[in-house]
């Protein structure tokens, strides 16, 4: 079968590899779509084969795959805090096959059935949407809260979709890219601003209850300026939720006493639980997550994924948010 595989730095190739065989307690999936996130773990497809001891699913069922792999034995796995497991990883990036191959065999517990009316390209968005869903669940906002999202890339958009699904009425988004700003509006943001044109902290204070700032700030940009904007925008007793991954050190905090005086909470949000993964599927199915397909800005066959997918995203080409790749032999199979 064909598989897109990582061989080294900027070395991605389409290889012919042995099709995986079914084994007890496992499910064989024909992959339909996989989102580009550098690791091949955002994917959905249909069941192609079942082990004899798996009786609660059927061949042809649409499914999304819970991609986190762990040792399953440590304290953190027992708590479903999978990102804290010392041996955690993702299907694809960490081995065991991934979504950029024609087939994958996974444990039954990793398979989440998707309703027939949900398209498989949308089902491939469950994983990034679950990251945003988890971040919102951690902060526990209520509809009256003012929430600020810094950055409207795939994860920022996932946070916006989750906030809308939780009936938050005042969602302010900071995003300099015109495309991603448009995506934020489509996702349901109340105000979308460019930090190049306006002071975000001032706007947030002027447009929040009692002019006090945001109850929750979701930092999804991963740059020092965004972190500083988060601290400047959050209200007393508010919360900054760090969802982004940083490539470099962030700047020092100019006034660290503000954290103490204003009783600000800073938390990190990482991955999601199996329950939250299923909650996202349910929210897509019943319409609480509205039009998630607007996140998709490209759909490519496997042979075009290297140049037109990874290449353009790595080069920062304007015009893309989430590119999906199908390993199907023909477009009609996806």
From TrEMBL:
Domain of life: Eukaryota
Swiss-Prot/TrEMBL keywords: Metal-binding, Oxidoreductase, Zinc
Domain Alcohol dehydrogenase-like C-terminal: 154-285
Protein name according to UniProt: Uncharacterized protein
Protein family (similarity comment): Belongs to the zinc-containing alcohol dehydrogenase family.
Matches recorded under InterPro entries: ADH-like_C, ADH-like_N, ADH_Zn_CS, GroES-like_sf, NAD(P)-bd_dom_sf
Occurrences of domain Alcohol dehydrogenase-like N-terminal (ranges): 40-116
Cofactors: Zn(2+)
Gene3D superfamilies from the UniProt entry: Medium-chain alcohol dehydrogenases, catalytic domain (3.90.180.10), NAD(P)-binding Rossmann-like Domain (3.40.50.720)
Taxonomy of the source species: Eukaryota, Fungi, Dikarya, Ascomycota, Pezizomycotina
PROSITE patterns linked: ADH_ZINC
Keyword Metal-binding on entry: yes
Species this chain originates from: Knufia obscura
